[in-house]
Write a structure and sequence with these properties.
The structure is a single chain. The protein has 403 residues and is of the alpha/beta class. The protein has 14 helices and 19 strands. It has an eight-stranded mixed β-sheet with strand order 12-11-8-13-16-17-18-19, with helices on both faces. It has a five-stranded parallel β-sheet with strand order 2-1-3-4-5, sandwiched between helices. A two-stranded antiparallel sheet has the order 6-7. Helix 1 crosses helix 8, helix 4 crosses helix 7 and helix 9 packs across helix 14. The two termini are 26 Å apart.
Length: 403
């Protein structure tokens, strides 16, 4: 429920891509938002208004339903005051060009012209219409006016042409909107580097040593940071499939690859706001001493095979963290000594904080929920719940501490 009590006004115009708007509404409502829909007359040619009313659980606003009763806000002025954000998806080429010229010859355009908060547009049209010089010039005008644009996709269009013009995916539009609604001055434009997943250390070309870490906590944290407005750079081995498209992702396998990628991200981090390092990856403590070419054959190895291991580099300790606020993650099965081990980690690895996660057993890996004890020299704070919501709570807490 990360968008609980947020009010979202969705404007839909005449485009075959309008069916995607139904999924977008579902995502908003699932996240706790209140959604109202304003439909242009051309939009009704594609989907009956009753469908939007059923999905949004609110009556639509159109030319016929607008009223000026003092006890209602279903008109092009008051509904804008109700909304925290205006999302136009799909937005036709016709409407794009009208908006850029300040026209207000229908209810949707009147609402847009009167709206004073953030507007996000998601265009959808044939390639020739989207890439027409007039439309492109008007895109630039809208950007300069402060509109945020969800880029179109290149794929097969309804006209069977393959080209640019398909509406952005609902998940990508949702992420853009959620970021606008949730970003804060503390996190906005702050660089954050995160590592996640279990490293894979090769034995030969088809076998490796790894662990049960799913990468989900790191990816949830990356998503939460993106929604808070941060510039997020994620280094991970797995579990990153559903993160926002604008998160900078480096997929790695081995601990040496992870170390190199983290160093690169940290070297290029902006220091205008002190950056964060969240080290949530489960790095192998030991790695095979030798890497075998090809595939080892059991016929050649015999009845037993001894694999010699050597101690791996300690990435977290080895990274140069002096310009970063550093947060390590500690997974423990030993409940009795977990807190002591996490506290020792603070000093030994020169960290500002440690997130302690006490596991019940190996089945704890890959779950959608988590329990975290955030530990520093000055405080201890507990968090529990679904991983994305939990991550947002942690970020809100860090912001309240103004670390």
């Amino acid at each position: 429920m990360i968008l609980k009590d947020k009010n979202i006004l969705l404007g839909v115009t005449g485009s075959i891509a309008i069916y995607k708007s139904l999924e977008l509404i579902r995502l908003f409502i699932k996240a706790g938002a209140n959604v109202r829909v304003i439909m242009s007359e051309s939009a009704k040619k594609f989907i009956n208004p009753i469908t939007f009313e059923a999905i949004s659980q609110n009556k639509i606003l159109d030319e016929n339903s607008e009223n000026w009763d003092k006890n209602q806000d279903y008109n092009h002025i008051d509904i804008g005051k109700w909304a925290d954000i205006l999302v136009l998806a799909p937005l036709s080429a016709n409407s794009i060009n009208k908006i850029a010229c300040g026209l207000a010859d229908n209810l949707t355009l009147q609402t847009i012209l009167a709206f004073k908060k953030q507007i996000i547009i998601s265009p959808a049209a044939n390639t020739n219409m989207i890439e027409n010089p007039i439309t492109l010039e008007n895109f630039e005008k809208l950007k300069n006016f402060g509109y945020k644009i969800a880029p179109t996709q290149t794929k097969e269009l309804i006209c069977k042409d393959i080209g640019n013009g398909a509406m952005a995916e609902p998940k990508d539009i949702f992420d853009m909107c959620a970021r606008e609604l949730l970003k804060t001055s503390y996190w906005e434009n702050r660089d954050v580097v995160i590592s996640g997943g279990g490293t894979l250390e090769k034995i030969d070309e088809v076998r490796y040593i790894s662990n049960f870490s799913s990468g989900k906590m790191a990816s949830s944290l990356a998503q939460a940071l993106y929604l808070k407005g941060a510039n997020v750079k994620l280094v991970s081995t797995r579990g990153y499939e559903n993160i926002a498209k604008n998160i900078e992702l480096k997929v790695v396998q081995s601990s040496s690859e992870m170390f190199e990628a983290l160093q690169e991200f940290m070297k290029n981090a902006k220091l205008s706001k002190k950056p964060y390092l969240f080290k949530a990856a489960a790095v192998s403590d030991y790695i095979p001493k030798s890497h075998f070419d090809g595939k080892l054959k059991k016929e050649s190895l015999g009845d037993s095979f001894r694999l010699e291991m050597v101690q791996n580099i300690d990435i977290l300790k080895s990274l140069d963290k002096k310009d970063f606020i550093s947060v390590g993650f500690k997974a423990e099965l030993d409940k009795q000594n977990a807190l002591k081990n996490a506290t020792n980690m603070l000093e030994k690895k020169e960290l500002d904080m440690v997130c302690l996660n006490i596991l019940e057993d190996s089945n704890s890996f890959g779950s959608s929920t988590n329990k975290i004890e955030l530990i520093s020299k000055d405080f201890t704070q507990s968090f529990s719940g679904e991983k994305l919501a939990l991550s947002i709570e942690i970020l809100d807490f860090l912001e309240s501490k103004n670390i």
